[in-house]
Amino acid sequence: MPTVILLNIFLQIFDFIATYFGSATHGELNPLLNYGFQTIGLLPTLLVTKAWAFWALWKIRNAAHVIPLLWIVAAFYTAISMAPWTAIFIRYLLLPTT
Fold first, then answer.
1. Looking at the whole model, is its pTM more than 0.85?
2. DSSP line for the chain
3. Which end of the chain is more exposed for a tag (fewer CB within 10 A), N or C?
């Protein structure tokens, strides 16, 4: 399995955990996820969206022509999910609220 697929799986798992724990206190900026949270709840929405993401990654895992695009997706997820959530969690750990 290409490294970029494994990287995207890791980013999906990170995003699931970060969104699950972080959205209660920091909210969610994605309007589609917000709608899902309000309609069917946080956990069901995350399970459905991540199941779809894993299914899509599984289907394209051997398609060599999408590998460059998956590197772009990984960079995008790192910029819009991993970096902000990591900054929030580090700030929380270093500067706990009283």
1. no
2. --HHHHHHHHHHHHHHHHHHHHHHHH----HHHHHHHHHH-HHHHHHHHHHHHHHHHHHTTT-GGGHHHHHHHHHHHIIIIIHHHHHHHHHHHHS---
3. C
